[in-house]
Design a protein that fits this description.
The complex is a heterodimer of chains A (272) and B (303). Chain A has helices at residues 2-24, 36-49, 62-71, 85-93, 123-130, 157-165, 182-190, 220-224, 244-254, 259-265; strands at 26-31, 54-60, 76-79, 98-112, 120-121, 148-152, 177-179, 195-200, 209-210, 212-213, 231-239. Chain A is of the alpha/beta class. In chain B, strands 1-2 form a two-stranded antiparallel ribbon.
């Protein structure tokens, strides 16, 4: 009986404790899987400095994040694209006003198998490859091998940037392979000598070879000065101008020596 | 006397309570299924205000996010059918023959060893099988056959066959094992060999169970998501060869749902794809049900 009483007391204490945490400050972040690693790192740092604030982070994609913001189930929506008109309309209909904060820049870099001899492609050549018009590596100065085109699923933020900056709103041809994540693209390209794919600068590693575009290397410098052609901003959206813990967190993210440090650590391009 | 009557009444009441509880439990899962189906149709049907059913099912282009979008899932449907048929060609013989071996040929000790191992194959998470297909099988196929890409119809079918074999084997083994002993003994007593007994007596007697197993295995292959997402390649086109990349319906839904704007056309189109998939698997299950009832072996006398 005594033990039972103790257990009940412990459960009650635990419930109270967690309620207290919730009251002390809880930030919910959800959205883009591209922004996820940055958000995670920054949140860990923020929580270690502010132990009374609890931040929960989940991925799910830019659309999912903005959807949660519209539904009011998240404080911050991560997004690898700007909010769409239709989404703004839905938010406003529900009395919410999305406020964007650009938190970092992302370079989308075309990658090939390390054994490929091609080092540079123009945006026009990339477009030709992804439209299915250039089918062999020898047409762009490489070996006589078929090109295996790997793209992201059409609804990812990364694909949207590719479609806008490279395809000029034209369609990637249907025979292109589609992968559901940047990690899967690295995996697929690194195991196929004929493959070409595109990923965020943070995902480039030794297993694939990054290509120059229009003779410009994708890097922090070229992304910020605008010379690298395939660059985009990453956002955090809040519902209305943030207040309280959410505002503190956003300020932390944007701070050059605090949040922006982790942006670089994760392989993205910081704002300053 | 009075006490006994009272006791009888309370027992009856208890009986009724238990009956009610069982009814509620049984009804709970049915109502959950009903809710899911209602939700599926509610979220999927609105797309048909924008796209005709015909264009949706027979359209050749799947570009849900372009301006203007194209919502044609014909290549996806063909991909799902192709991957199911080809994986069945591999998994049915493997599964059924393994079941025959286990039930009729293997010694009891062998059976005790092999059966759990095959069932363990069913316990392998699909993401593990998908990863295996992506990292090991795809580069191997590329090198072996000198094809441009190893993530293709064949690879996906092979991985799905791995997944259906345990289902097919386990259910058909049960069916074969439950063939009445008299049938087998009669056949052997008439001078039939073991092989003749298996072919002429055991298989016909257990055909309903085997067919059910095969169809459930196929419906598993059709509905499986993770493996086709990782291994099939994902190109939304009608495959011209066994080694073309494809994009079956579940892979499309899984890859795009997270990023589709909530209650947008793309979202509705993905749910409508889900409806088509649901109809396919429902047909499979109804077929399994029909066959298992139609050809049911009752006792030893009806063969």
């Amino acid at each position: 009986m005594k033990i039972k009483g103790l257990i009940i007391a412990a459960v009650i204490a635990a419930v109270f404790f967690s309620v207290n945490l919730a009251l002390a400050g809880n930030i919910v972040i959800t959205g883009s899987t591209t922004v996820l690693p940055v958000a995670q790192k920054v949140a860990e740092a923020y929580m270690s400095q502010n132990p009374d604030v609890k931040i929960s982070i989940s991925g799910g994609g830019s659309g999912e994040g903005i959807k949660s913001l519209i539904d009011g189930t998240t404080n911050i929506a991560d997004s690898s694209r700007f909010i769409k008109d239709s989404e703004i309309k839905q938010a406003v209909d529900k009395g919410r006003y999305p406020v964007p904060f650009a938190i970092a820049y992302d370079c989308i870099i075309p990658v090939v198998h390390p054994s490929n001899t091609v080092v540079n492609l123009t945006v026009q050549q990339l477009k030709g490859i992804y439209k299915g018009e250039i089918k062999n590596w020898k047409e762009v100065g490489g070996p006589d091998k078929p090109i295996v085109v790997i793209s992201r699923d059409t609804s990812s933020g990364t694909y949207e940037v590719w479609e806008e900056k490279v395809m000029n709103k034209e369609r990637v041809y249907p025979a292109a392979l589609l992968q559901a994540s940047s990690g899967a693209i690295v995996q697929a390209v690194s195991s196929n000598q004929n493959a070409i794919g595109y990923i965020g600068i943070g995902y480039v590693d030794n297993s694939v070879k990054a290509l120059m575009v229009n003779r410009v290397n994708g890097s922090e410098e070229t992304a910020l000065n605008g010379s690298f052609p395939i660059t985009r901003a990453l956002y955090m959206f809040t519902s209305g101008w943030p207040t309280g813990d959410t505002l503190n967190f956003i300020n932390f993210v944007l701070h050059p020596q605090k949040g922006q440090k982790y942006v670089r650590e994760e392989g993205f391009v910081p704002l300053y | 006397m009075l006490k006994d009557q009272h006791k009888g009444k309370s027992r009856r009441r208890k009986e009724q309570w238990i009956k009610a509880i069982f009814f509620i439990v049984a009804f709970a899962s049915i109502s959950v299924l009903a809710l899911i189906v209602i939700f599926l149709f509610m979220e999927g049907l609105p797309i048909f205000n924008k796209v005709a059913v015909r264009d949706f099912i027979f359209g050749h282009y799947w570009y849900p996010t372009s301006e203007p979008p194209d919502f044609g899932i014909f290549p996806l449907i063909i991909a799902s059918i192709a991957v199911t048929v080809i994986s069945s060609l591999m998994s049915i013989p493997l599964g059924v023959f393994t079941a025959l071996y286990l039930a009729e040929v293997a010694s009891a000790r062998m059976r005790e060893w092999v059966k759990p191992i095959i069932e363990l194959l069913a316990a392998l998470p699909s993401v593990v099988i998908g990863f295996f297909g992506m990292v090991i099988v795809a580069p191997f196929l590329q090198d072996l056959l000198n094809i441009p890409v190893g993530l293709n119809l064949f690879n996906a079918s092979l991985m799905l066959a791995f997944m259906s074999v345990p289902t097919i084997c386990s259910i058909s083994e049960d069916a074969i094992f439950s063939v009445p002993r008299e049938l087998k003994e009669a056949s052997l007593a008439l001078g039939a060999t073991r092989w003749e007994t298996i072919w002429r007596v055991i298989i016909p007697a257990s055909i309903s169970g085997i067919s059910t197993a095969v169809i459930l295995g196929m419906s598993r292959a059709m509905g499986e998501t993770m493996v086709v997402l990782m291994v099939a390649g994902g190109a939304a086109m009608i495959p011209a060869s066994l080694f073309d990349p494809i994009r079956p319906m579940p892979a499309s839904i899984a890859a795009e749902m997270a990023e589709a704007p909530f209650r947008g056309d793309h979202y509705y189109a993905l749910f409508a794809t889900g409806i088509v998939l649901f109809v396919f698997t429902m047909i499979f299950n109804m077929m399994a049900d029909y066959i298992s009832n139609r050809f049911r072996q009752v006792g030893a006398s009806t063969l």
